[in-house]
Write a structure and sequence with these properties.
- Strands 1-2-5-4-3-6-7 form a seven-stranded antiparallel β-sheet, with no helix packed on it.
- Strand 1 and strand 2 form a beta hairpin.
- By secondary structure, the protein is of the alpha+beta class.
- About 30% of the residues lie in helices and about 25% in strands.
- It contains two helices and seven strands; from the N terminus they run H-E-E-E-E-E-E-E-H.
- The relative contact order is 0.09.
Length: about 220
């Protein structure tokens, strides 16, 4: 009797476990929720979860996307394709053209759902590297024109001309120039006079030597027998 009672109790507990476990196994059924956002470029991400517990929808989702731009253009309907980043992440099968769009996603499986959001689409431009312009050729001055001297350079005066003093430099007074010219002339005169005196001294010395030689010759003749 005790064994029969234990057997019946085991059957009842097993049956109760099956009955109570069946709803738990199907807890992910029911309505679904769509989260629609732009991907920052030219497509749309759609995340599909169960509305009751927020768990991801692992079943196949059948959904389409339509859109209307701010300037009146229409896009779609386009089917959603499963993305490789997640089992419950979907994307539009075709990219959105550039512009601002009012996007509507409609799902039919595993449950019906609808979501409408505003999305801005556009291709992200790559940064442009800054370039330095190459130095251009230096043009030669036209015939008949005079090129300005480079800063810090000094231009020699033309032959026969006197260069004007640069700004900030004082020129020598005129009387100093005259005194210098007079000193140069006096030096030339003294040089000529000195040459004449030297020649006179040489001539006098030669005459004295000749006279002495004549005197000695005359005495020598007188002393001879």
């Amino acid at each position: 009797m005790k064994k029969a009672s234990a057997y019946v109790l085991t059957l009842l507990l097993s049956w109760a476990g099956l009955v109570l476990g069946a709803p738990a196994a199907h807890a992910h059924g029911g309505p679904i929720k769509l989260e629609v956002t732009g991907d920052g470029a030219d497509n749309v991400n759609v995340l599909v979860t169960y509305e009751k517990d927020g768990h991801p929808v692992t079943e196949i989702v059948a959904a389409t996307l339509t859109a209307t731009s701010s300037d009146g253009r229409a896009f779609g309907p386009v089917p959603l394709r499963s993305a490789g980043e997640g089992q419950n992440l979907y994307r539009s099968a075709e990219p959105l053209p550039s512009g601002e769009w009012r996007v509507t996603v409609r799902a039919t499986e595993p449950a019906k759902a609808k979501k409408t959001v505003k999305v801005k689409a556009g291709v992200v431009a790559a940064p442009v590297a800054a370039t330095t312009p190459a130095p251009g050729p230096t043009a030669a001055p036209a015939p008949g024109t005079t090129a300005a001297p480079a800063p810090g350079s000094t231009t020699a005066p033309a032959p026969g001309t006197t260069a004007a003093p640069a700004p900030g430099q004082a020129s020598a007074p005129a009387h100093l120039h005259e005194a210098a010219a007079g000193a140069a002339g006096k030096t030339d005169g003294d040089g000529a006079m000195g040459s004449v005196l030297r020649i006179g001294v040489i001539v006098l010395a030669a005459l004295a030597a000749l006279a002495a030689w004549l005197v000695l010759a005359h005495r020598h003749r007188q002393t001879r027998p």
